[in-house]
Amino acid sequence: RIKRLESLKIIEGYTVNVNPKAIGIHELFFIEITLERHDDEMLENFSEALADIPEVVEAHLVTGDYDYLVKVAVKDAEHYERFLRKKLYSIKGIRHTRSTFALRPLKSANTADLMLIE
Question: Three-class SS of residue 2?
Fold first, then answer.
């Protein structure tokens, strides 16, 4: 069955789940980001810049009041401040950001859980 799911591209690969605290990552932030412009060049440049930042663990282009929702994993608040000043804010084209600090995880699903959705 697994080989069939792989051949149908339902299974795209395999991952390892790492305990973030075991490697010194204690804080999780979500950042809403609005860009100055929405042309193809701006979106592509911003996406490429985010992909090169190790603290960015997820990034989604979204609809609504902002353009991107970005999930960032850091050691502590000082690390987050450095991330903002030295990495995120150095990306050209950001108009506005808003950060939210995660208190604790309630649910974290991997993509295999999607197969349970009807």
Answer: helix
